[in-house]
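The following record pairs a protein chain with its ligand, flavin-adenine dinucleotide.
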Amino acid sequence: MTTLVPILGDQLSHTLASLRAVTPAEAVVLMMEVADEATYVPHHPQKIALFFSAMRHFADELREQGWTVDYVRLDDPANTGDFADEVARAAQRHSASRIISVAGGEWRVVDSQQTWAERTRLPLTVLDDDRFLCTIEQFAGWAKGRKRMIMEDFYRIMRRQTGLLMDGDQPVGGQWNYDQENRKSVPKGHRFTPPLRFAPDAITTEVMALVAGRFGNHFGSIDGFSWAVTREQALAALADFITHRLAGFGDYQDAMVTDEDVLNHSLLAPALNLGLLSPLEVCQAAEAAFHAGTAPLNAVEGFIRQILGWREYVRGLYWFAGPDYTARNHLAATRPLPALYWGAPTDLKCLSQAVDATRRNAMAHHIQRLMILGNFAMLVGTDPAEVHRWYLAVYADALEWVEAPNVIGMSQFADGGLMATKPYAAGGAYMNRMSNHCKTCRYDVKQRTGPKACPLNSLYWDFLARHEETLKNNQRLWRMYDGWRRFSAEEQVRIREQAARFLATLA
Ligand code: FAD
Ligand code: DLZ
């Protein structure tokens, strides 16, 4: 009586529900490197290498613990490239009598799992993924009937539920949220402490060669791969962040600096999303730093809010909103994704910096993703489905459950305000306030029209004008529309012509 236990690439947790449900004596763990998963979007080579290397390390760790692991490598000539086919082949190989699996992290994979019982004619148990702090059912209970799902409301419930940064029933320090203190600009000459990185070992090196050979045509550089690929490394990266960089996390959380890829961001999202770290242990490590007096409350609360608040919230929203969420297009945007997202040259310094960081690192920090890359795609009217596929492809931490709400909801306003109360639209003034990119950009951020004018300025006003009917009653945009109406009719025409000329260059 063999139980087949398929473990997917983002389920690399030793306490996974399916591993808790069986013993090594009765089970064969199945892990599958499949071409379908590596190509359903053209993932960044570092992302594929991260998944394969972390999977191979995890399989070795399980074997050391006494588990039998059947690991199907990508270059196995018999590999069919598809989860369902591989499960069926393995069920036969091991004469399995049942299958136990943990629910996949995206609708597409859950759909595949549904077919496994019929394909193998075996009893199939799909367990809930209990590595999150809020269950899908709990989120749905909270969200049901709400017109708007305000993250802050959800976050307070999660603070009370977990006791993180709580003093009885009240938040430590008297405030729930210290965001106001987290918008500082970076002083000239400020030096950021670099994050801990990991040189590729033999397993990673082998995987990198495999990926370069098979997926070298995908956007992104494999060189410089230095991600944590084991739990041990992920714990070291966490400890390093807590000790050396957490204290400054809050202050410059929203800042963007030329040639500075990481600032004080943790770079922990890939390890969290693969299951090498648990969200609770990461939050508890940050909380302990506050109580030890090594990190201030604005940094610790800001960091915990990202994980306990945003990460849990977007996961709940993804499952609550349903499988057609990624097809939403509230602003009816149809433009193909501009070529600059795939590395075509652009004179906009903010964009070239963000795309180049993405190409080199399979990473860009939150404000680059939201206010540079997302903002530009929305202002020029890009089809949100294309934007979604790009984000899913290029970031090491991109899994649909977390990527889609951030892209479709937060950055493109394509869900019509389910997630965000207004579009995150910004012109050059925002960029100039929050970054130093404009200082070395060929465009003049102060100009709206003319050959040197920063394109973001005319695009911003053109976006508002284009969507006036849809957006004008949004209370949070009142001030922006008031600004637009204060321009003379002639200036409005000049601005829109300027935007049209720029948009024509993207075609
Ligand atoms: P830090 O800035 O150090 O933040 C700490 C942790 O908080 C992160 O590791 C992450 O786990 C969590 N977090 C922060 N913000 C969010 C958020 N908005 N939603 C969910 N978790 C959050 N995050 C992903 O994990 N995968 C994605 O595919 C992804 N796509 C995004 C797309 C867009 C358009 C935007 C605006 C945000 C996206 N995010 C995504 C959220 C966020 O940008 C990344 O989690 C973060 O940049 C990862 O870097 P870090 O680990 O250094 O994060
Ligand atoms: C992202 C990814 C990639 C590139 N490759 C694999 C793979 O070969 N095998 C695997 O099990 N998972 C992979 N993943 C993650 C999946 O696409 C998907 O996100 C998870 O299976 C969802 O639980």
